[in-house]
Design a protein that fits this description.
about 280 residues, mainly beta, four-stranded antiparallel β-sheet, Tachylectin-2, Chain A
Length: about 280
């Protein structure tokens, strides 16, 4: 509930719908298109499979932080967290410049054994598999040719990492597999940026991206589901669903009174980054 500046509390969904409809600028309306300039810094990727054999060929969900001065044993000015989408730990790279050269911290950071997510493949019955396939098709989501493998592959991925200056800690939001066809997000904290302690609470859907707004922590996850939390760590209250069913990865940026959402769609080939 929102109470600040109001005589009576207003339900979260009603308030957030009004706020986000005012904040979100849709690319469907060219007359209101935001002025956003994207500058590519290099003619190649910052991180690639050729950097180190330990990271594999699937590089997913990178999240960059500027390393704070209070972090012990700094390896570089910048830390880049990322994953193999079906990997068993969150990768970590470091550099003194955003453009690199980047080095891989081979042990990585958060490990699946420390994440509260299952490290072993769960079993799934043919009946349950058919139910999940039907549900996805009904929602307009494209179904993988090997959905059984997709729905039962142990992993943690999609890190969203933030520096908590007030508490001198690094906060990581990430998702993983809880059971057949059931993935969700959790949060973990670290005092050195490498070793993370996860919390067991299910805080929301996958691909969660966090942003502060008027004293609260807000989140958007796949497929455009909004949440908010008073402390950014627990009790994420579910708000409205504002995107299409095939919305997947996203990144967020708040400028003044406007929320910018950069996002992709499942099944787009070639894939492109959209802006709302």
């Amino acid at each position: 509930m929102i109470t600040q500046g109001l005589k009576k509390p207003v339900p979260f969904i009603a308030t957030l719908v009004i706020a986000l409809l005012a904040l979100l600028i849709s690319t469907a309306a060219p007359a209101q298109s935001p002025k956003v300039t994207i500058t590519r810094l290099l003619d190649r990727t910052l991180i690639g499979p050729d950097i180190h054999p330990s990271i594999g060929e699937n590089i997913q969900g990178p999240s960059l932080i500027k390393v704070p001065d209070w972090l012990p044993n700094k390896m570089g000015n910048y830390y880049l967290y990322f994953a193999d989408h079906k990997g068993l730990y969150i990768r970590l790279a470091y550099a003194d410049s955003i453009t690199g050269p980047w080095q891989i911290h081979e042990p990585g950071s958060l490990q699946i054994e420390d994440s509260y997510f299952t490290p072993t493949r769960p079993t799934i019955s043919e009946e349950r598999l058919n139910e999940l396939v039907a549900a996805r098709r009904a929602a307009g989501v494209q179904v993988s040719h090997d959905l059984a493998k997709e729905l039962t592959e142990p992993h943690i991925a999609s890190p969203d990492v933030h520096v908590d200056e007030a508490n001198h800690r690094v906060v990581m939001y990430f998702h993983g597999l809880e059971g057949p066809g059931f993935q969700h997000s959790r949060v973990a904290t670290s005092t050195d940026g490498i070793h993370f302690r996860a919390q067991e609470e299910n805080i929301g859907r996958t691909y969660m991206r966090i942003f502060p707004w008027k004293g609260m922590s807000y989140a958007i996850s796949m497929p455009g589901q909004f949440y908010r939390s008073a402390d950014g760590m627990t009790d994420f209250e579910q708000g409205p669903l504002l995107f299409t069913p095939n919305m997947r990865h996203s990144a967020v940026m708040v400028r003044e009174e406007t929320l910018y959402v950069f996002w992709t769609r499942v099944g787009d080939a070639p894939e492109s980054i959209l802006l709302s």
